[in-house]
């Protein structure tokens, strides 16, 4: 560790060349550029965010106050489009559907996700492989998902026939073409696609729980179910929240799945706000009404998101 | 060792058995659609009518795959989904690369070169991850029309970059925030500037997050339907739109085998990515979820 | 090697004043230590010297040049960071040569420089490794090597030893001291460890709440602290602070103490002048270091500034060479440093001797020095 034997090396003066080169001189235009570079690099993104997100939201808001049909027309009619929307039976069906679909989808995904995560957390053989199977649907598009489930739920040749072949002769399964039940097919397909993701979130959460807490509870004599119910799951509250936010986000944006699985049918029994907005704006040429429905969707997202972000930010200040 | 609540070995064994039974049932549920798709795509239509969803094909046929690729009807034209498959690549590759690269630069600025208002801007940008895109598509359609980009691949790439950037920026920002700022300070003192530090110090550390971000963006853009159906025209449609047209066009007899083969083709690239890089895929999902 | 002058430097974050007007100056080749508890502004001051943070007002001169507005690269400084901040993707060689490479020093020259530094710090065998393959101590050396690879006017060390384990920290401390003695460079060194400050520094600036509490040589700071904060911060175990009454005895001054058994003693003060007159009969704070309260040392017994008293031992903490004995005076705990052979068992009475020549007095309100 001693360096007494290297004094020679120290004493050696460095060559003039190094000295000169090290004394870098500052040139002011370059310095100016260095100071502004970060802002210049972020600039395009700032501008694009301001225009393409905030500007466009405002623009859509403005359109929702006009009579625009196939083309934007800026003659304002106040909140007429919103009144029309509330009078519109199809919109009301779509709104009801999003409640049913969204509610069931979120609930089932959360329940299945937690259950699968807990089961997988029991030192399972081939856990990796099982996890892979649970998660692969997330890599597929909702269009592919819809196409596959449309075939599986096909009233003539799908599940019905399979069950009949297996001996359940009277098995009937016509949800896809039954206006009262078709919305539940959306739930089935969406749950199949997204629940593995929820499982992954919870599994990550479970793995993050401090093992010594569990050990302490075991020493206190708590049984495993009690430990999960009283200690581990409450620990996963933040995971519940973020899973809820993501799932509700998926639900509200659901468009592709409906288009592929039911096309909004039979009739318009499985319309969701997203498909309503698309059909109204692009197929039926009621841009004003379509904009109003889009703004309604945004309002719902904000109503869910703002309390969440608020609590997140508050939590951060306390943390 | 006197544990009063000790479970006796028999009931532990039964518990284990139930556990595995439930898990196997779940695995079957998740696997079934893929198996059904594959089996159906390899059958003839007569075979499909005669058997059921999971019956083995009487004869394994690849005809449906060929037809799906080159001659199935997608709405007006009947050239299969092959061209749309390539369309999707033409859209996806530039969109993913550009949005990822911009996200990396943005994340670098937002963590290592903060300036007054940069945190506020990041908050505003986060909002962009959450908006339902329905609320921007009408103005965007107008804008693309004015720019002459309506129904073009370029237009679609542009849209994907603009709305993908919020996510890519979020990924890189959350990654770079964990990179010690002292590294940047040290490099500044060593005389390196903005881009030198990025190229020489930051980028070499960014391998994993690039993989995560590219996979995430690839999946998002490849699987997109909304932007595709709104902003693309006949020849520039991505595969998702073509698949939907193929499956839901009401002309002629339904050929389920062709539908399934097409769905498999549309799903293949993202499935391959998932199989090859599942770890990063999951990391992206959960990373996006933590703050997204 | 250059002088450093800091002139009324202020730094404000929003409404918080982090630096409230700092004035310091050191000669070329001096080793300056900025020491203080966390949040005292020492790191902010160092970053301001480096140019990593802008100052709100005031000037910084390095080697006579005003560098206040300059970018870090134009200040001609080198810095060793607490986390070492080695570039993870580069080998040790590349890390050391990076600054030279950026400054477009020719390759042969760079190699020579790397060799010189490697020899100096004995890290030649590590040159082709990545930082992740090094131990904590090796990383620390490489971080120093990176700073030494140039010949900057000033070296800045930001708590460079705080991530090392205790033994290595002492070794590296000695090496840094040797290095400074040999290279005669100007060094500014931030630490929260008062032992590091005492052992390394030519000059110490003790900081608290964004102000320099005292600026002086280590011995000045130790023997002649400006206020109670400095007195309490420097030295381990810390100086005893004892509330007691100032008394007038035979034209001189003394303070009164009472042991837990109720016996009272007068401890004489040596250097008192007239300014203390107004404090007679009032409460003051006596500052006395543990090593000045000892067992009875016979040959010092007759000195004027030495007093004796006996008190009950309440706790004894052997450290090896000495034992720290806790007693109670005026109802307050007092640390004494005694020879282990003279130590009495806990609970029993023991005879102590106080050397009052280095005792100090503080104003209980302002915590400033009275004597």
Notes on the protein architecture:
With 319 residues, chain A is mainly α. Chain A has 15 helices and no strands. The longest helix of chain A is centred in the N-terminal third of the chain and has 36 residues, at 28-63. Chain A starts with 6 loop residues before the first helix and ends with a helix. Chain B folds into two domains: 9-61, no CATH class; 82-291, MetI-like fold (Orthogonal Bundle). Chain B has 13 helices and no strands. Chain C has 371 residues and is α+β, with helices and mostly antiparallel strands. Chain C has two domains: 4-233, Rossmann fold (3-Layer(aba) Sandwich); 240-362, Beta Barrel (OB fold (Dihydrolipoamide Acetyltransferase, E2P)), CATH 2.40.50. In chain C, the strands form five sheets. Chain C has a six-stranded mixed β-sheet with strand order 6-7-8-3-9-10, with helices on both faces. Chain C has a five-stranded antiparallel β-sheet with strand order 13-12-11-14-21. In chain C, strand 1 (4-13) and strand 2 (16-26) form a beta hairpin. The radius of gyration of chain C is 25 Å and the shape is elongated. The model of chain C has no long low-confidence stretch (mean pLDDT 91). Classes of the chains: A mainly alpha (319), B mainly alpha (292), C alpha+beta (371). Chains in contact: A-B, A-C, B-C.
Shape of chain A: globular
State the separation between the terminal residues of chain B, measured CA to CA: 47 Å
User: How many helical elements of chain A?
Assistant: 15
Helix amount of chain A: over 70%
Radius of gyration of chain B: 25 Å
Number of strands of chain B: 0
Mean pLDDT of chain A: 83
């Amino acid at each position: 560790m001693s360096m007494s034997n290297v004094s020679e090396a120290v004493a050696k003066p460095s060559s003039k060349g190094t000295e000169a080169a090290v004394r870098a001189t500052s040139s002011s235009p370059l310095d100016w550029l260095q100071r502004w570079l970060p802002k210049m690099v972020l600039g395009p993104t700032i501008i694009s965010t301001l225009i393409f997100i905030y500007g466009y939201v405002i623009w859509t808001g403005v359109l929702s106050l006009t009579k625009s049909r196939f083309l934007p027309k800026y003659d304002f009619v106040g909140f007429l489009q919103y009144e029309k929307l509330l009078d519109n039976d199809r919109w009301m069906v779509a709104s009801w559907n999003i409640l049913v679909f969204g509610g069931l989808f979120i609930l089932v995904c959360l329940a299945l996700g937690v259950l699968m995560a807990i089961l997988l957390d029991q030192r399972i053989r081939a856990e990796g492989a099982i996890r892979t199977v649970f998660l692969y649907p997330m890599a597929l598009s909702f269009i592919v998902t819809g196409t596959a489930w449309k075939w599986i739920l096909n009233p003539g040749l799908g599940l019905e026939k399979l069950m009949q072949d297996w001996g359940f002769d009277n098995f009937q399964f016509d949800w896809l073409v039954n206006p009262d039940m078709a919305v539940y097919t959306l739930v089935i397909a969406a749950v199949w696609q997204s629940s593995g993701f929820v499982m992954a979130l919870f599994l990550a959460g479970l793995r993050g729980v401090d093992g010594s807490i569990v050990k302490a509870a075991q020493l206190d004599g708590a049984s495993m179910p009690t430990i999960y119910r009283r200690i581990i799951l409450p620990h996963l509250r933040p995971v519940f929240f973020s899973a809820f936010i993501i799932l509700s986000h998926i639900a509200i944006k659901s468009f592709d799945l409906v288009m592929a699985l039911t096309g909004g049918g039979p009739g318009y029994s499985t319309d969701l706000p997203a498909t309503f907005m698309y059909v109204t704006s692009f197929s039926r040429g009621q841009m004003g009404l379509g904009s109003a429905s889009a703004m309604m969707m945004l309002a719902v997202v904000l109503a869910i998101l703002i309390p969440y972000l608020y609590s997140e930010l508050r939590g951060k200040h306390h943390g | 060792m006197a544990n009063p609540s000790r479970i006796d070995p028999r009931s532990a064994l039964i518990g284990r058995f139930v556990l595995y039974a439930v898990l196997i049932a779940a695995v079957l549920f998740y696997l079934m659609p893929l198996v059904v798709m594959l089996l159906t795509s390899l059958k003839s239509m007569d075979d499909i009518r005669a058997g059921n969803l999971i019956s083995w094909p009487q004869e394994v046929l690849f005809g449906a795959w060929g037809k799906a690729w080159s001659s199935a009807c997608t709405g007006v034209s009947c050239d299969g989904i092959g061209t749309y498959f390539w369309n999707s690549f033409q859209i996806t590759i530039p969109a993913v690369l550009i949005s990822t690269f911009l996200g990396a630069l943005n994340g670098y600025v937002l963590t290592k070169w903060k300036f007054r208002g940069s945190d506020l801007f990041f908050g505003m940008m986060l909002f962009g991850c959450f908006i339902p895109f329905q609320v921007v598509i009408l103005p965007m359609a107008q804008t693309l029309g004015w720019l002459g980009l309506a129904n073009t691949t370029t237009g679609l790439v542009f849209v994907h970059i603009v709305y993908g950037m919020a996510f890519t920026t979020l990924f890189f920002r959350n990654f770079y925030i964990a990179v010690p700022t002292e590294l940047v300070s040290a490099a500044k003192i060593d005389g390196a500037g903005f881009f030198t530090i990025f190229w020489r110090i930051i980028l070499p550390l960014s391998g994993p997050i690039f993989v995560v971000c590219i996979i995430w963006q690839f999946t998002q853009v490849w699987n997109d339907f909304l932007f595709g159906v709104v902003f693309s025209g006949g020849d520039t449609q991505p595969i998702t739109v073509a698949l939907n047209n193929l499956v839901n066009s009401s002309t002629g007899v339904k050929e389920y085998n062709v539908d399934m083969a097409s769905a498999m083709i549309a799903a293949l690239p993202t499935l391959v990515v998932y199989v090859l890089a599942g770890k990063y895929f999951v990391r992206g999902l959960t990373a996006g979820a933590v703050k997204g | 090697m250059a002088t450093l002058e800091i002139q009324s430097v202020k730094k404000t974050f929003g409404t918080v004043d982090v630096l409230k007007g700092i004035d310091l100056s050191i000669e070329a080749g001096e080793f300056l230590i900025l020491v203080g508890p966390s949040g005292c502004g020492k790191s902010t001051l160092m970053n301001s010297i480096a140019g990593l943070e802008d100052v709100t007002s005031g000037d910084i001169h390095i080697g006579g040049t005003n560098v206040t507005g300059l970018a870090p690269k134009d200040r001609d400084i080198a810095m060793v960071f607490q986390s070492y901040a080695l570039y993870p993707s580069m080998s040790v060689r590349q890390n050391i040569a990076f600054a030279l490479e950026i400054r477009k020093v020719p390759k042969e020259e760079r190699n020579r420089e790397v060799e010189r530094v490697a020899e100096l710090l004995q890290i030649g065998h590590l040159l082709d490794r990545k930082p992740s393959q090094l131990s904590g101590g090796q990383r620390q050396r490489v971080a120093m090597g990176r700073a030494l690879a140039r010949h900057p006017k000033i070296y800045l060390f930001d708590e460079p030893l705080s991530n090392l384990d205790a033994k290595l920290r002492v070794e590296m401390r000695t090496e840094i001291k040797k290095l400074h003695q040999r290279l005669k460079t100007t060094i500014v060194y931030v630490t929260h460890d008062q032992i590091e400050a005492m052992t390394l520094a030519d000059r110490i600036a003790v900081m608290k709440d964004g102000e320099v509490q005292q600026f002086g040589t280590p011995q000045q700071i130790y023997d002649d602290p400006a206020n109670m904060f400095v007195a309490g911060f420097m030295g381990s175990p810390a100086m005893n602070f004892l509330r007691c009454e100032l008394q007038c005895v035979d034209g001189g001054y003394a303070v009164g103490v009472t042991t837990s058994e109720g016996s009272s003693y007068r401890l004489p003060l040596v250097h008192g002048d007239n300014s203390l007159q107004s404090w007679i009969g009032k409460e003051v704070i006596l500052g006395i270091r543990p090593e000045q309260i000892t067992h009875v040392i016979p040959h010092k017994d007759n000195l004027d500034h030495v007093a004796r008293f006996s008190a009950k031992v309440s706790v004894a903490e052997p450290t090896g060479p000495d034992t720290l004995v806790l007693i109670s005076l005026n109802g307050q705990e007092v640390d004494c440093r005694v020879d282990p052979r003279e130590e009495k068992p806990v609970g029993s009475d023991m005879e102590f001797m106080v050397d009052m020549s280095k005792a100090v007095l503080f104003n209980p309100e302002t915590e400033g020095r009275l004597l």
